[in-house]
């Protein structure tokens, strides 16, 4: 019972990271979803490809910004936990 309670606390503490992972996952497949939607609406291949690539570029830039902020936050935690040399 104690381990189950610890696991629930761990999930509660990492909920923001789980949501961030879902956002990154949805961003990575956004170009494909847009391409499939445009295909169902009977657009030409050039329009589908251009909008799909443009959407993926925007998604990659957003993913880069999210990862950069995440890595910067982790580096700050590591450096603040280490004792400073004189």
In short:
This protein has 86 residues and is mainly α. It is built from four helices and no strands. Helix 3 (30-40) packs antiparallel against helix 4 (45-81).
Structure write-up:
With 86 residues, this protein is mostly helical. The protein has a domain at 26-67. 86% of the residues lie in helices and 0% in strands. The protein has helices spanning 2-13, 15-28, 30-40, 45-81. α3 packs antiparallel against α4 (45-81). It is elongated and about 60 Å long. The mean pLDDT is 83.
Topology:
Blueprint: H1 2-13, H2 15-28, H3 30-40, H4 45-81
Name a few traits of the molecule.
4 helices; single chain; mainly alpha; 86% helix; 86 residues; elongated
Order of helices and strands: HHHH
Low-confidence stretches: none
The major sheet is characterized as: none
Helix content: over 70%
Total number of beta strands: 0
């Amino acid at each position: 019972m104690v381990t189950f309670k610890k696991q629930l606390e761990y999930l509660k503490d990492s909920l923001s990271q789980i949501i961030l992972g879902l956002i990154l996952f949805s961003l990575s497949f956004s170009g494909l979803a847009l391409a499939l939607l445009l295909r169902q609406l009977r657009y030409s291949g050039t329009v589908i490809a251009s909008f799909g690539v443009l959407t993926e570029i925007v998604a990659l830039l957003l993913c880069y910004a999210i990862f950069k902020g995440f890595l910067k936050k982790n580096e700050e935690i590591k450096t603040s936990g280490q004792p400073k040399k004189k």
